[in-house]
Design brief:
single chain, alpha/beta, Spore Coat Polysaccharide Biosynthesis Protein SpsA, Chain A, two-stranded antiparallel sheet, about 30% helix
């Protein structure tokens, strides 16, 4: 009998927001909520066994994550790049079969998309060890990785995300979704304005 998927969400929220300006993009407001708070809300009702947020040392970020029901893990090497945050999250896993790796600056991500990705781990995850949402034929986030990739993810460093792992995998499933939010991450003030409109 196939093992039931045990999925942990790992949301990366440790970036320094250099392109956003002096303010912290994750704590910027959108629709009377922070960008980070809105991004985390998409995971609220998904069938996840754990919800983990990786942040830099910041009490405000930790409070936002805790309010959304996420356990907070501090990445003390966040300035070294996204790879260190992914590795930090993977190192915290305890028997999960999949990691759904998302970004903390995607406030238009729909909860239906997160749930659909989780369901796909059950229905398609036996043959596809990586599942990526696509919109308008472009790859988006979050991305679902089976445990077979955990060692490679835990070895990431610097600014390298999971791209090379995906490129080296021969059983990646692209999952088309009617959700432009999988493409919209907030890196600049212009991006925030676009999200507001």
């Amino acid at each position: 009998m196939p093992q039931q998927a045990k999925i942990a969400a790992i949301v990366l929220a440790a970036g320094a927001s250099h392109r956003f300006g002096a303010a912290d993009k994750l704590q910027a407001h959108l629709d009377n909520e922070t960008v980070l708070g809105r991004s985390l809300a998409a995971y609220a009702d998904a069938p996840l066994v754990r919800k983990i947020a990786i942040t830099r040392p910041d009490k405000n970020l930790a409070a936002i994550c805790a309010a959304a029901g996420f356990e907070v893990i501090i990445n003390h090497h966040a300035d070294d790049g996204m790879g260190t945050s992914i590795a930090t999250g993977i190192a915290a896993l305890q028997g999960e079969t999949h990691a759904l790796i998302g970004l903390g600056d995607m406030p238009r991500l729909q909860s239906q998309t997160v749930a659909f990705l989780c369901q796909s781990a059950e229905t398609s995850g036996r043959s596809s060890s990586i599942i990526m949402p696509t919109h308008a034929n472009k790859h988006g986030h979050p991305r679902l990785f089976a445990a077979v990739h955990f060692n490679a993810l835990a070895a990431l460093s610097g600014d390298m995300g999971g791209r090379l792992i995906i490129e080296g995998c021969d059983n990646v499933m692209e999952m088309p979704v009617n959700d432009a939010g999988v493409m919209l991450d907030i890196d600049t003030q212009d991006h925030l304005s676009a999200a507001q409109s």
